[in-house]
Amino acid sequence: MKPTLPGIHHVTAITADAQQNIDFYTGVLGLRMVKVTVNFDDPTTYHLYYGDESGRPGSAMTFFAWQGARRGRIGPPQVTVTGFAVPAAGLEYWRERLNEHGVRGITEEQRFDDRVLTFRDPDDMRLELVATREPGGDAPARGPVPPEYAIRGFHGVTMAELGPEPTAALLTDVMGFSEEATDNGRTRYRAGGGNPYASAVDVVEADAASRGFNGAGTVHHVAFRAPDDAQQIAWQSAIAKRGLGVSPVMDRCYFHSIYFREPGGVLFEIATDGPGFAVDESSEALGQALQLPAWMEPDRAKLEKALPPLRLPEWLQD
Ligand code: ZN
Known about the structure:
Bound molecules: zinc ion
CATH class: Alpha Beta
Order of helices and strands: EHEEEEHEEEEHEEEEHEEEH
Helix content: 10-25%
Number of domains: 1
Shape: globular
Largest sheet: 8 strands, mixed
CATH superfamily: 2,3-Dihydroxybiphenyl 1,2-Dioxygenase, domain 1
Number of strands: 16
């Protein structure tokens, strides 16, 4: 079986302040909070999920909230920038909005055929809004950003590598990406036979002096989509055949995951499209209450006591 990989599933990063993170991603960027749960490997810390209206694969920006975690450093080998797609007519709106909210590091550039607005989140993580002619996706139905300007999921990610060739070879020879264009030291790879949504992976070469390390304000890993469990198993064996160490399938409740390091050192995950975020609460109520996997429910009282209290977005409380 030749499995498919339609694009990015989610991006997971680290924040040192859960509340500040919620206020920024829902209150400024206008993403929908689609899940409040705990890190399954460290259940006294939150795992926060944001997305479009349904939290579909390709829209899920997630954070490990490690209160007071030391700041990391953005640099190779890492996903150094996460890019969101916004309707092309919305870039002026966004520039004003980000300025009004005192967002740092706002710059604009032309890249390939797109206008790109770059800025920093409160942990100083690098983000981009990419003006996209037909961004697809479902704008959040409620929230502070008018639907015609709303973020519609990911455009893609940028990875910095010390030597990009082995990474490029993995993307094209094994993972089904095609090389699309090169501009100014940046090579764009496109997943999924040209799927235009959440499918761009840009690789740039960076020198060893700029080497990064994980901590608050950095991306922990990027996950790519497997349409179903059978295709995930096929990916697992394809990755192993390539000689890379790959994890067993893990039950992440909202999807099933395998993990491996690409040859340059960036942590990759392949996650199934299903079962999705509506598996433990209704689509209307996504992200409004702490959800725990069944195996942690017996510890709910203890965990709730250990977790810092959160103010969830006001516009979800009506
Ligand atoms: Zn993940």
